[in-house]
Amino acid sequence: MREVTCLIVDDEPPMVRRLEKYFERWAERQLPFRLVGYAYSGDEALEKAAELRPDLILTDIVMPGMSGIELIRELRERMPSVEVIILSAYSDFAYAKQAIAIGVFEYLVKVPLREEDVFTALSKARDNVIAREEKEHRIQSLSGSVKENSHRLRKHLLEELVRGEVSASVMERRSMELAPGFEPRQYGCFAIRFDNYDVFCSEFSPSDRNMLKYGMLNIIEEVLQGVGGCFACELQPSVMVAFATIHAGSEQMFDNNCYELGVNVRDAIKTYLRISVSVGVSRMHSGWGQAAAAYEEAKEALRDTFYASFGTIVTFNRRLSYTEHDWRELTEHFERALVRVSAKSTREVLAPLLPHLHDHRVNPDRLVDYVEGWCVRLRQGLLPAEHAEADAIRGTFADCTHLHQLVERLRLQGERLGTLAEGSGLRPEMVKAMRYVEDHLKESISLSLVAEHIHLNPTYVSELFKKELGVNFTDYVSKRRIERAIGLLRKNNYSNLELAEAVGVHNEKYFCTLFKKITGTSPQKFFADS
């Protein structure tokens, strides 16, 4: 059983002794928590932490000299993986907000301090420690160089086949060397795509991303080889492709088998790597001569996940149909809005358009291109020529793989263009600060970071928010996070933890408290009532 080592930091000896007794009782019951030391000040705690390297630190906030918040900031620089639980006599949200912003795992109030509350917090922190270590171990174990080279060679070979640069006979001979056991007599093509590749890239370094991708390929091969041979590789940065032998007596049975395999692939990647993917599958094919067509069918099926939630499986028989009628209706709404829009009505005109995107089914690639072009024309109509360059928008929507991503970016573009067009509505530095907040809601945002970004003094930026928007900086960020959470909640039935992480709040309990403070109800009740 993984034992978690703990360090207590508190300037009150009675509190230290009380916590020591808790640990003594837990040791007698053989529970996985061991006290390795204690400190009575922040400076002493830094020395003890460097010496003892604990997994977890329990600290007070208000102490002589270095405060608990200052201690935690120092620890984050020196020991970024250590978990921190705050024990404080203060229940004031100001302390809790600071704690959450610097990655504190839990915030417990001392009065009254119950043993079961401390034990529950320690147990959750221990789960975090174990999950992190397992993730690091998985990443390290995915670095087999032989298999990496094999996957690279497969990628180059498949790219040549798709481009028509290699014959089916050559492909068959070379594939026997790179993927022995796979015979393309009756197979389907699986296209597996990251649901949020931007987040994946922001969370992992390039080397870790490569290792995780090879881990995905290993999982895909293991699942698909359970029913026959498999030829898998990464064909695009965000898309894995696999050809798998599937035995079935009919097209319908083949389609059903492919769907079940797609579900198994998705679930295994989610379970072992904590990565969400969607899967598109072709119909039944035979021979390498049909591989390029099979790949195109899988890509087309994958494209249909645009109108579904993350983790969707689309097979050939489950494809959506797109009609010209829907296309004409949708574009007519947007064209009429473009005529009516003005600097003062951008938000009012754009808001009614967004529901139409959910009500019409049109080809996703065609839609993304149209919306991008529409935004270019909107910018050119609202702004003077010197500020209306198309390059300011080009590429904004290119990587939208799901409708809710497109809708959110369109809403943000509308707000930005409206703010720019209004000119005197807000000061330029205020607009820049608000834009920074919007772009970094998933991250830890502080007044000092925003002030540094716009090259102003933090105190002055704080006064700007109060003067220009009528709220202080912290309340503005909290409000935008909850508004973003509400937008996500309307698209899918997320758990509270998933919502919290999606909007940059890394504590589920605090997120629920913040949500209720701003909306008057809990996230799930809000969803049920809306």
Helix content range: 55-70%
Give me the secondary-structure category. alpha/beta
Distance between the termini: 45 Å
Please describe the biggest sheet, giving its number of strands, its sense, and whether it closes into a barrel: 5 strands, parallel
Estimated radius of gyration = 27 Å
Spatially, the strands of the biggest sheet line up as 2-1-3-4-5
Large-scale geometry? globular
Structure summary, number of beta strands: 10
What does this structure look like?
- The chain is globular.
- It starts with a strand and ends with a helix.
- The chain has 530 residues and is an alpha/beta fold.
- 58% of the residues lie in helices and 11% in strands.
- The protein is built from 23 helices and ten strands.
- A five-stranded parallel sheet has the order 2-1-3-4-5, sandwiched between helices. Strands 7-8-6-9-10 form a five-stranded mixed sheet.
- α4 (93-101) links the parallel β4 (83-88) and β5.
- It has helices at 13-28, 42-52, 68-78, 93-101, 115-141, 145-162, 168-178, 197-203, 206-224, 251-273, 291-303, 324-340, 346-350, 353-359, 364-382, 403-422, 428-439, 447-453, 458-469, 473-489, 496-502, 508-519, 523-529, and strands at 4-9, 33-39, 56-59, 83-88, 106-109, 187-194, 230-236, 239-245, 277-281, 313-314.
